[in-house]
Amino acid sequence: MKYLILLSFLISLNSYALVNKGQMKDLLSGHKCKKQIIKLLSNWKSNDSWQKIANIDLSRSVYKTPSHKIGSWIRMDIQNNKAIVLQKMTSKMIISKEFAYDGNSCSGEMAVRSLKYDEKYLSQSFTDAELINSLSQNKKGIIYIWSPNMPLSVTGLKYLKKHAKKMGVHVTAVVDPNSPKSDIDALVTSGKIDKEALRPLESYDLIQRGGLIHFPAFFSYENGKLSRAPKLGYEDDKQTLNYLKKQF
Question: What angle is formed at CA 172 by the lines to CA 171 and CA 176, rounded to 5 degrees?
Answer without folding.
Answer: 135
